[in-house]
Write a structure and sequence with these properties.
The protein is an alpha+beta fold. Among the domains are: about 130 residues, N Utilization Substance Protein A, Chain:P, domain 4 (2-Layer Sandwich), CATH 3.30.1480; about 70 residues, Nucleic acid-binding proteins (OB fold (Dihydrolipoamide Acetyltransferase, E2P), Beta Barrel); about 80 residues, K homology (KH) domain (GMP Synthetase, Chain A, domain 3), CATH 3.30.300. About 40% of the residues lie in helices and about 25% in strands. It contains 15 helices and 15 strands. A five-stranded antiparallel β-sheet has the order 7-6-5-8-9. Strands 1, 2, 3 and 4 form a four-stranded mixed β-sheet that branches. Helix 1 runs parallel beside helix 4, helix 5 runs antiparallel to helix 8 and helix 9 runs antiparallel to helix 11. The termini are far apart. Keywords: Cytoplasm, RNA-binding, Transcription, Transcription antitermination, Transcription regulation, Transcription termination. Monomer. Binds directly to the core enzyme of the DNA-dependent RNA polymerase and to nascent RNA. Participates in both transcription termination and antitermination. One of its GO terms (molecular function) is RNA binding.
Length: about 425
């Protein structure tokens, strides 16, 4: 393989990978200089000129002519007067000899190795370009096509044919994709695995929800409305705290849109995830009240030291505050940054009820605390639920729940 064929084939391959000309020339020169160092131990006195467009390569070895008896005669950049005269009869001591080195002088094996090295360098460069491209897009939405569905992840292909990964844990539980489907997700992170970029996507990240709002709500995209915080239970429920510094803009109304037109597009993309948009405020009591919506709060007590908030509600509001699967109270706690405990307000009809704390001799304290976390602070509030309700709301085992029911019922039978 001569230089012209080698360079032209490399240049064609490089162009197919969208490698720019200066980078292409730099890689060619690096590889040829590596060949020179292997054969001559150094490349300091060599000049390499490459014209990738024409496939031209010129390598010159530059040496200074010294007297045959000079002490420097064995230096890499020196040549004896006698040797120089063999190249050109009229050379004189002190002049420089430019000796052209043909590619064939490096040997067939070296040239073949150079060809493989050039291809590998482009592939490595392609990986670096891919890594940089997606590293700059972390937190941004991308669309890609499903091409393979595996047990623990879905493999997707972007418009340039690059492989992206959507792990099971980054999928919304209700997501169901088929080969050929187009999937929207954010670039969650980019890892390097054995020199290969691994691009991880996510549909469960709060950032994905934030980007969807930016796409659907121009005021959010333009910065007129700020998303202060987002908390999610992917596919189930999300709470979004928003604010605007322009009094003329209603941030909640703008995010929801006329008849819910804007938020509906977001909800559909998130597999009907229930999204609560609330006005952010520095007033903690008001913030907690909004966070627990749709429940109506009667009163609030804040324990700043323990970062806990006790919320008191009318009996018919407790289940609303807790929400299906306990998601409403969990998300409200995460949104405000405090642990929220829900308590029922007692009224004149609750005289016969008994506080759970009264059963501390028969029911272990941690079990009572577990019940209180879900807003169940009296015997009748527990007995009003079914075993299935308690199993869903708490982490208690069925045998424990049966025992709780037995003890509480026994109290009223007496």
């Amino acid at each position: 393989m001569d230089a012209k064929i080698l360079i032209e084939s490399f240049a064609e391959f490089a162009r197919s990978k969208n490698v720019d000309r200066p980078t292409m020339i730099r890689i060619l020169e690096d590889v040829f200089r590596a060949m020179i160092r292997k054969k001559f131990e150094t490349d300091e006195n060599f000049d390499v000129t490459i014209n990738a467009d024409k496939g031209d390569l010129e390598i010159f070895r530059i040496r200074e002519i010294v007297d045959d008896n000079s002490e420097d005669i064995w230096d890499f950049d020196k040549i004896s007067f006698t040797e120089a005269r063999k190249i050109e009869p009229d050379f004189e001591i002190g002049e420089e000899v430019y000796e052209k080195i043909e590619l064939e002088e490096f040997g067939r094996r070296a040239v073949q190795m150079a060809r493989q090295t050039l291809i590998q360098r482009i592939k490595d460069l392609e990986k670096d370009i891919l890594y940089t491209k997606y590293e700059e897009q972390v937190g941004e939405i991308v669309s890609a096509e499903v091409y393979q569905i595996l047990g623990r992840e879905i493999l997707l292909i972007d418009s340039d044919g690059n492989e992206l990964i959507l792990p099971k844990g980054e999928q919304i539980p209700k997501d169901r994709f088929r080969k050929g489907d187009t999937v929207k997700a954010i670039v969650h992170r980019v890892d390097m695995n054995n020199g290969n970029p691994k691009i991880i996507l996510s549909r469960t990240s709060p950032v994905f929800l934030e980007r969807l709002f930016e796409n659907e709500v121009p005021e959010v995209y333009d910065g007129l409305i700020t998303i202060v915080k987002i908390v999610r239970e992917p596919g189930e429920r999300a709470k979004v705290a928003v604010e605007s510094y322009d009094d003329r803009i209603d941030p909640v109304g703008a995010c929801v849109g006329m008849k819910g037109s804007r938020i509906h597009a977001v909800v559909r993309e998130l597999q009907n995830e229930n999204i609560d948009v609330i006005n952010f405020t520095e007033n903690l009591d008001l913030y907690v009240t909004r966070a627990l919506s749709p429940a109506k709060v009667s009163s609030i007590t804040v324990d700043q030291e323990r970062k806990r908030i006790s919320v008191f509600l009318k009996p018919d509001q407790v289940s609303l505050a807790i929400g299906k699967g306990g998601y409403n109270i969990k998300l409200a706690s995460r949104l405000v940054g405090y642990e929220i405990d829900v308590f029922r307000e007692l009224n004149e009809y609750d005289d016969e009820d008994v506080d759970l704390s009264e059963f501390v001799d028969e029911i272990e304290g941690w079990i009572i605390e577990e019940l209180k976390k879900t807003g169940l602070d009296t015997a009748k509030s527990v007995l009003a639920l079914t075993k299935e309700d308690l199993t869903r709301r708490t982490e208690l085992e069925e045998e424990t729940i049966d025992e709780i029911f037995r003890i509480l019922r026994q109290e009223f039978e007496q």
